[in-house]
Amino acid sequence: MRSITEMLITKNVLISDGAWGTFLHKRGLLPGECPELWNVTHKNDVFEIAKSYIDAGADLILTNSFGGSPIKLKHYGLEDRAHELNEAAAKISREAAGEYKLVLGSIGPTGVILMLGEVSEESLFNGFQIQANALEKGGVDAICIETMTAIDEACIAIRAVKSVCDLEIVCTFTFDRMLNGSYKTMMGVSPSEMVVAVKEAGASIIGANCGNGFNNMIEIVREIRTIDKTTPILIHANAGKPILENGITVFPETPEMMVNKVDELINCGANIIGGCCGTTPNHIKALVEKIRN
Predict the structure, then answer these.
(1) Domains of the chain, each with CATH number or no CATH
(2) Cα–Cα dist 236/172, whole Å
(3) Which of 178, 274, 183, 179 is nearest to 221 (CA)?
(4) 203-217 tens-digit pLDDT
(5) Model's pTM, two decimal places?
C-alpha cells in the first residue's frame, strides 16, 4: 500500500481519472441495470475503462463500486453480494493500475436520509464496513467517500472505514451554487462546514466532486482554503454544466477548455485533479500534459 500524501510530496499535484458511468453505458449497461454487477459479468469492459485512464497518464484511478453498499444494492436484490462485488471492483482497478499507480476505492452515498428514519445508523455503518473491508482486500491504496451531501452519512462512512482498516480516507461533497453566490449541498452543507466535520471524523484528504465545472470548483477550493491551509484537496469536476441537445445530455467543456483553467485551480490550492461526469481519457491526457509540462 502506498500513501497519497507521500506521493504528493514528490509530485506536488496528482492527476486522477474521469467519468465511469458514461462509458459503462456506452459499453452496453442498460438503464436500471446494476453497474457494480459488471465487475463480475463484464470484467473486461470495466478493466478497459480503468486502463484507459492509466494509459492517459493518470496517477490514480477509482473503482467501479460507487453504489456498492448493501443498502444501494438491495434495489437490485444483490445486497448479499456486496463484499463480492466490491472486492471484484478493487481487483480490476488494481490490475489496471499496475504497481506504480494508486487505486482509490469508491464509496458513494446510499440514497437514504437518516433524519427521515429511512435507515438506522447501525445499518449504514455496517454497510460501509462491508465495502471498506472488501475494497481493502481487493488491493486499493485508499478509500474515497464521494458525492456526499449530508454530514451525518459522510461521518458514519468515515468512522466505518476507520473501524476496519488503516487506509487513507478521501471525502468529497457535491455542492450547488445558490442564488446568492454561495455553495451548499442539497442538504444545506457549505464547503466550510464540510471541512470541519469530515476532518474531525478522520478524513485525511478533502474536496468536491460532480455538479460543477472548473469555474465553480475554483470558488469552492478558495472557500475551503480560507479555513484549512494544509489538508490536501481533491477535485473531480464535471466537463462543465450539462445541457440538453436534441434530448441528449451533453457536457460542453472540451479538454482544451478544462486545461485553460487548471493553473488557477492549482494556484487556489487543489492538489489532486481529475474529472467526473462528461470527462474522458482525452480530458485526463490533456491535464497530464499541461500539469507535467
Answers:
(1) 4-292 (3.20.20.330)
(2) 9
(3) 183
(4) 999 999 999 999 999
(5) 0.96
